[in-house]
UniProtKB/TrEMBL annotation:
InterPro entries: AKR, Aldo/ket_reductase_CS, NAD(P)_OxRdtase_dom_sf, NADP_OxRdtase_dom. The lineage of its organism: Bacteria, Bacillati, Armatimonadota, Armatimonadia, Capsulimonadales. One of its GO terms (molecular function) is oxidoreductase activity. It holds the Pfam family Aldo_ket_red. It comes from Capsulimonas corticalis. This is Aldehyde reductase. PROSITE patterns: ALDOKETO_REDUCTASE_1. SUPFAM superfamilies: NAD(P)-linked oxidoreductase.
Length: 339
């Protein structure tokens, strides 16, 4: 990083890190790369390069985001600019329609991302139920199935093979529940290093959050700002808005920052790794500065703990497998894996 860039960025050495069970260190904030309908893959790839220039070192990717082929050249540009590969943290995920074909899917992500290895590879969802990008929430996969543990463990065994072959340094889960993780932890040879889950002030998932922490699994929090720009199809009338919450607004006013920054500060201070998305320099610089700047007070942390509304935004309706089923079945809210 040049002196000029450093002046307007954050020295990556100052960004806190979390230690995984292997001893590896993951930057305590990452940049999301899912642009949904709002941004082009090219804009996102440019943002990745520029975010690295302001100090981001951790990027959250996935094959289903449809942009890894452009993020690969962006990562190349970053390493050619002098950032060592070992100083980057790149996550990718296997999509639902490749659970039987994990190794080939990972190899494709590696080719697209122009990497020899991934730092973390996740099973994106615990169901092999796929849907075309951008479909309405009423869309259903005719072959959709509930969570079948034996099938998931076959997929997990392929994940373990990737780790054994050195193609990925860590493997992990995403969109899981405690009942599902109980079974995976019982049967896995290689335990998940991280679990990516929706986490923001209005959806704090305290039980699952504590469950993973207690088992040495690092929680990575997606939609940390409450995904304020998600498309209409991903909104329901009862959804609440984190960045409009009076508690968040008053802390933002005290600090003189955007409410999004307060959400990211809270996330990092609580102990999850937020992965905010943005293609705008002022925004991704602000979220990176959030994790090195003035912390929230204990009273502010307690006040935010008190505004949890259990408001899940990414409900996953498109993965349902039965007629007239509630999206809550995807999340085992009765403590059992719904069939
Ligand atoms: N594992 C999974 O299943 C899963 C699911 C969902 C997401 N993810 C990951 O999580 C990432 C983030 O989630 P997300 O995009 O849903 O939601 P998010 O990060 O909560 O919200 C992103 C939006 O917040 C706004 N924003 C960002 N920084 C800001 C700032 N400093 N000030 C003001 N506004 C700011 C931007 O809105 P504008 O664009 O309108 O400016 C941006 O588009 C994704 O990109 C993806 O990598 C993973």
């Amino acid at each position: 990083m040049t002196d000029a860039k450093l002046a307007e960025g954050v020295d990556p050495a100052r960004v806190p890190k979390k230690t995984l069970a292997t001893g590896a260190q993951i930057p305590a904030i990452g940049l999301g790369t899912f642009g949904s309908d709002n941004y082009t893959s090219d804009q996102i790839a440019r943002a990745v390069v520029d975010a690295a220039s302001v100090g981001y070192r951790h990027f959250d990717c996935a094959s289903v985001y449809g942009n890894e082929h452009l993020i690969g050249p962006a990562l190349r540009e970053i390493t050619h600019s002098g950032v060592a590969r070992e100083d980057l943290w790149v996550t990718s995920k296997v999509w639902n329609d490749r659970h039987d074909d994990v190794i080939a899917s990972c190899e494709q992500s590696l080719r697209d991302l122009k990497l020899d290895y991934l730092d973390l590879y996740l099973v994106h969802w615990p169901f092999p139920n796929a849907h075309a990008p951008g479909v309405d929430v009423s869309s259903r996969d005719a072959h959709a199935r509930p969570y079948i543990h034996d099938d998931y463990m076959k997929t997990w065994a392929r994940m373990e093979t990737l780790a054994a072959r050195g193609l990925v340094r860590h493997i992990g889960t995403s969109n899981m529940t405690i009942p599902k993780l109980e079974l995976v932890l019982r049967d896995a040879s290689l335990k998940p290093a991280a679990n990516e889950m929706e986490l923001h002030p209005h959806f704090q998932q305290p039980e699952l959050f504590q469950y993973v922490l207690d088992r040495g699994i690092v929680p990575i929090g997606y939609s940390p700002i409450g995904s304020p720009s998600r498309p209409a199809r991903d909104r329901t009338p009862d959804d609440t808005v984190d960045v409009e919450d009076p508690v968040i607004l008053s802390i933002a006013e005290r600090l003189g920052v955007h409410p999004a920054v307060v959400c990211v500060k809270w996330a990092a201070q609580r102990g999850q790794i937020p992965i905010p998305f943005s293609v705008k320099r002022s925004q991704y610089l602000a979220t990176l500065q959030a994790v090195v700047g003035e912390p929230l007070t204990d009273a502010e942390m307690a006040a935010i703990a008190g505004i949890d509304k259990n408001n899940r935004l990414i409900k996953g309706q498109v993965f349902l497998w039965k007629e007239n089923q509630s999206w809550e079945d995807l999340w085992d809210i009765h403590g059992e894996i719904a069939q």
